[in-house]
Amino acid sequence: ILLLCVSGMRAETARYSVPEEGERGSFVANIAKDLGLTAEELLARQARLVPEGEEQYFQLNQHTGDLVVRERLDREELCGQSEPCLVRFEVLLESPLQSFRAEVRLTDINDHAPVFLNKEIVLKIPESAVPETRFLLESAHDPDVGNNSLQHYSISSNEYFHVYTQRRNDGRRYAELVLDRALDREQQAEVAFSITAVDGGTPPRSGTALIRVVVLDINDNIPVFTQSLYKVSVMENSSQDAIVVVVSASDLDSGTNGEIAYSIFQNSEENLQTFKINPETGQIRLKKPLDYEETKTYEIDVQASDGGGLSTHCKVEVQVKDMNDNAPEVIITSHTSTLSEAAPPNTVVALFSVRDRDSGDNGRTTCELTGEQPFRITLLAADAYALVTSETLDREQVEEYNVTVQARDEGSPALSVSKTLFVRLLDVNDNEPTFTQAIYTMVMSENEPAGRSLGRLSATDPDAGENARVRYALVPPPTGTLAAASFVSVDAESGTVRSLRPLDYEKVPAFEVTVRAADGGSPPLSAQAVLRVVVRDENDNAPVLLHPSPDSSAAGELVPRWAPSGYLVAKVVAVDADAGQNAWLSYELAKATEPGLFRVGLHSGEVRTARAVTERDAARQRLIVLVRDRGQPPRSATATLAVALVDDFSDAFHQLASDPARGEQPQVAEEEMLTTYLIASLCCVSSLFLLSVLVLTANMLCKARVRAELSPPSPSCYADGDFASDGVGMGGTGTLSPAYRYEMCLTSGSGGSEFRFLRPVLP
Question: Of 152, 579, 663, 671, whose CA is between 20 and 30 Å from 688?
Fold first, then answer.
């Protein structure tokens, strides 16, 4: 990308000259020397020629700086009769961009000889013509200019005429034949001699023609024009066959000698191609449209001849008026189609010139841009302009421009032309990526396997190409913080977030990481967003019992038999490490010795009596409390409670102090009795013929054993010393204060079922 400065432009014009018809490769000048540059600088800056028109007539040798002729040049073909003949071009240098105007003048060489269009010129002169009478001759044509053009005429020696060379206003020369002495048709009816047209070249060139003078009988009057000079103006846009002027001549003679015929006298081939005259009326009309830019003035010699052969001449000057018939031309000298969006104001985008072939106001031009765009036009020299940036550019807002340059002349009506230049902006990494959210929240399930997609991050960059390619990465956490970056990964291309390992909600309920999005520019730009990952709890933890302790087989509680309905027996306490509804616990009585006696609070876990305790209720009650959470699927735990119904707390402690093992004997006896019944039953089934004997024997044995084991104890009272000496400490556990002492007496008729302590009540 080439950033250009307008101040570096130069508008001086270098002028050179070279003769026409030079050989190809002919030396013109050394451009490098004139520009003050070396040949190496000329080559390094890629010097080149930009012609004003479409044809390139010269070429530049970048190694030597020589300007040479590209092809043989014919001045007459390029410029015609115009002088000077100039070939204009520009020398364009890069790094930095500079433009130099130059023009080469083609000097004329004498490569054309004068030529008469008619090799034989016939003049009819009456014998009555007096000496010193002048007769206009056809002009010779020489396309050369200056001294190389036709300079004078001469005639061969004769006794009647000499020639006189005249000059027109446009510089061209013509010949007039001057009569030296009177003619006598009877002596010599025809006079012949040669005329020579000579140019001023070195060596001079010439052309000849034969003049035949036919001597006529006397015709007393010659035609006479009403004006010797007719001046008219014609618009260049006049249509073909339009009337230019009407010439008029009269002749006093009568008959055929008074009949006048008009003709355009041969003095220019161009006049014959452009104008025509009516021989009877003298109307001069256009044979083709006029072009002010080619010829501005015409001089026409009109001859009026009568029937007797006499003639006279007049001049018609035709001034061509310029019309605004040429629109301006916009010529692009240099154009940069791509431009960096970081280009500063006044960066040159294109160099161009405006040309209008019209003249005056019709040829004066102005140049402007259409539309609102960040460009403007700067005038470098006459009709030379530069298209430059007027403000900073932003590719993200407008990626490309179609800049329309409009050139308008000052004619009436004004003509204009437009030229569109395409400019595409190249991207610069001037925009950082932008996340669609500042904080992304994603959810992953507890114990979810590694590699599972959690979601996708998205960041956009308004730049283009590599500058817009966004790559994602996790920002390393500060030292000493939770290594949350090891829990998830982010795909660098797509931004997909995946889990790296299963997580435990109870250890990591949520974590945050910082994600960076960087583009591919140089240097890269980046942005950051916070990724918050919430671990969704799964019901992977069962409730844990705090009371009663899960280590003991069963927890014992004492309930007095006078306990009313709603009496608090115990409270089951449990916790769940999960969260939410996975940790919401509910309590229910799963199993009980007497289901109607107790109830459990659904949410409190309190075990209370559902009704008042009665004497019919069993002394020992076994309760199983189910603790269940609300997860899916639900998890649960059970707590076992052993409840003893007692009449008085003091009886229970006295019995436990005297013989703690005695309370267990009735339970053991009952278990042994049940075993005996089972054995007896099996024996009955096994042997039918011994059924009666075995039943009687077993019955006797069972009764004897029961009486031996349940023999009534002798009445006894326990004193204070007996209770304390048993060694059971009452201060460690239980519900009674160790500061009290109780007396308990049992009669000899008390049975084993009337008072019993369960083993787990006291250690």
Answer: 671
Identity of the amino acid at 516: R
- Which of 6, 761, 738 lies closest to 376 in space, CA to CA? 6
CATH number given to 120-216 = 2.60.40.60
The string of pLDDT tens digits covering residues 506-522 is 888 888 899 999 999 88
Contact (Cβ atoms closer than 8 angstroms) between residue 605 and residue 627: yes
Contacts of 531 (CB under 8 A, 6+ apart): 439, 440, 442, 457, 488, 490, 497, 512, 513, 514, 515
Which residue in this structure is represented by tokens 């889990």? 499
The highest-level CATH class for domain 224-321 is mainly beta
CA distance 267 to 310: 19
Instruction: Give residue limits of the domains in the chain.
Output: 14-107, 120-216, 224-321, 329-426, 434-536, 544-646
pLDDT, position 276: 93
With a CB cutoff of 8 Å and minimum separation 6, the contacts of 199 are: 110, 112, 113, 114, 142, 144, 147, 148, 149, 150, 151, 205, 206
Query: Tell me, what DSSP letter sits at residue 429?
Result: S
CA–CA gap between residue 567 and residue 569 (Å, rounded): 6
Any idea which architecture 544-646 has in CATH? Sandwich (2.60)
Partnered with residue 637 across adjacent β-strands are: 627
Q: Are 138 and 50 in contact (CB under 8 A)?
A: no
Q: What is the pLDDT of residue 439?
A: 94
Q: How far apart are CA 658 and CA 713, in angstroms?
A: 13
Enumerate long-range contacts of 669-677, CB under 8 Å, 24 or more apart: 669/706, 669/709, 669/710, 669/752, 673/702, 673/706, 676/701, 676/702
Q: What is the mean pLDDT of residues 676-692?
A: 73
Asked if 610 and 565 count as a contact pair (C-beta separation under 8 A), the reply is yes
Superfamily of domain 434-536 in CATH is Cadherins (2.60.40.60)
Place of tokens 């036919």: 214
Query: What are the E-state strand segments in 414-564?
Result: 416-426, 434-435, 439-445, 453-456, 459-460, 471-474, 488-490, 496-499, 510-518, 526-536, 544-547, 555-560
CATH code assigned to 14-107:
2.60.40.60
Coil/strand/helix, residue 223:
coil
Tell me whether domains 120-216 and 329-426 share a fold: yes
Contact 511, 484 (CB under 8 A): yes
The per-residue pLDDT for range 324-335, each reduced to its tens digit, is 888 899 988 888
CA distance 247 to 279: 10
Beta carbons of 605 and 625 less than 8 angstroms apart: yes
Structure-token pair, residue 89: 């071009």
CA geometry: angle 478, 522, 527, nearest 5 deg: 40
**What span, in angstroms and rounded, lies between the C-alpha atoms of 618 and 559?**
12
What's the fold here for domain 329-426? Answer: Immunoglobulin-like (2.60.40)
Taking each continuous run of H as one helix and of E as one strand, the counts in the chain are: 8, 53
Q: Output phi, psi for 293, to 5 deg.
A: -70, -20
Higher pLDDT, 144 or 495: 495
In this structure, what token pair is assigned to residue 458?
């998205």
